[in-house]
Each structure stands twice: as C-alpha cells, then as structure tokens.
Write a structure and sequence with these properties.
The protein has 6 helices and 10 strands; from the N terminus they run E-H-E-E-H-E-H-E-H-E-E-E-E-E-H-H. It has 210 residues and is an alpha/beta fold. The protein has one domain: NAD(P)-binding Rossmann-like Domain (Rossmann fold, 3-Layer(aba) Sandwich), CATH 3.40.50. Strand 7 and strand 8 form a beta hairpin. The chain is globular, with a radius of gyration of 17 Å.
C-alpha cells in the first residue's frame, strides 16, 4: 500500500476525528478542512488542520489541490438535508478543478441517533432523498473514481407503527452497490481512499446486492 495525501472535508466532530486517526495510523498525510480549526481536537505530525468552507467550490479547489484523494464527511442533517446535495456538488466541481480524480464520501449521519419510531421514519425520508440525489450527481461523473457510503432507510414493520432500523449502510461506486455493517464504515472508507483510480473492488456483488 502506498501512502496517500488526503484532503478531509469534515465537521469538527467524532466522525472526522475517527477518520483522521485511522488515516494517520495507516501512515497517510491528512489535511483536515473544517469550519473551526480550534474545535478539531487532534494533533499529529502528519496532520494539518485549516479553516475552509466546503460549500464554496473555490475553497474545495484550493485545499484539494496537491492531494491524491478527497474525503467528504459532511452528511445530511434532518434539519437541512438539502444542503448535502449542494455540498456534494461543490466537492465534485472543486475536486475536478483541483485536478484530483478520486472522491470518497461518508454521508450516513453517524452522530444522529436512529430511532424505530414513526416520527423518526417520516423525518428521515428527506435525508434518504438527499442522499439519492447526491448519489446521482456522482454517478454522472464518468472520469472520477468515487465511492459513496449512505443510509439504508428505516423500514415499516408488519404491524402499524412498527419500524426497523438497519445496522448496515450502502456502499455505492461505479461498479455497483453492496450493504456493509455500519461498524465497518471507517475501515471501508479508508480502504477506498487507498485504492488507485483504476483498481477494482473485491466484493462479490451478485451475492450482496439486494
């Protein structure tokens, strides 16, 4: 495995910290682009933390330039799920202008508590819709190497008012889609970041597709 220069666009929360920690543990160099660098509580010789706005394409270009891969860890929020689509578009356009051809996105709202209630089921529908729209933006990019980790929608049960929340997430990329355990998102995402543009995936999709 060759080491990578990773541009990590992330909120200053636990998800971004875990991704940065795992990348650094694997020997990669990480630039974390956050809204407030003082809130990103991680120090390492191979980590640089800077302030940047992922919603602005020109700032994505500025900070992605010179890196091997861009990781987008901004997931949709229940309060404003549409912002995720705008951020995904900004990351795609800014990354291409920076001359980088590899994007990995973690869009499941990991820090959002998943509840098996009808209220949560209804409130989560716009999040799923935003993820589907963001995925379509990536699918249109024929010259980018991309991967997208996103949510499995809560499912209505057999009885009225009964709902089920999955402990898996979708892993989508140009070759297909699979479901992986939620607990494997960090390792899966970093494995994707380490792949070269022309490398293929190891999943047997005929077995794992829904």
């Amino acid at each position: 495995m060759s080491t990578q220069k990773i541009a990590l666009f992330t909120p200053a929360g636990e998800v971004g910290r875990r991704l940065a920690e795992e990348a650094l543990k694997r020997g990669h160099t990480v630039t974390a682009i956050v809204t407030d660098e003082n809130e990103f509580k991680l120090k390492h010789p191979n980590l640089k933390v800077v302030r940047g706005d992922v919603r602005k394409k020109e700032e994505v270009t500025k900070y992605a330039k010179g890196h091997d891969v861009v990781i987008n860890a901004y997931s949709p929020s229940i309060k404003n799920p549409r912002e995720h689509v705008d951020i995904t578009r900004s990351v795609i356009e800014g990354t291409k202008e920076a001359g980088v051809q590899h994007i990995v996105s973690a869009s499941h709202p990991f820090e959002q508590r998943m509840e098996a209630t009808e209220e949560f089921y209804n409130s989560f529908k716009p999040v799923i819709q935003a993820q589907q729209e963001a995925l379509k933006l990536l699918q249109k990019e024929k010259n980018l190497s991309w991967s997208y980790l996103h949510s499995v929608a809560p499912e209505a049960g057999k009885k009225p008012g009964e709902y089920q929340v999955s402990d898996e997430i979708y892993f989508s990329h140009p070759e297909g889609q699979a479901r992986i355990p939620l607990k494997e998102y960090t390792s899966t995402l970093l494995n994707e970041a380490e792949k070269g543009q022309m490398e293929t995936h190891e999943f047997n999709y005929e077995d794992r597709l829904e």
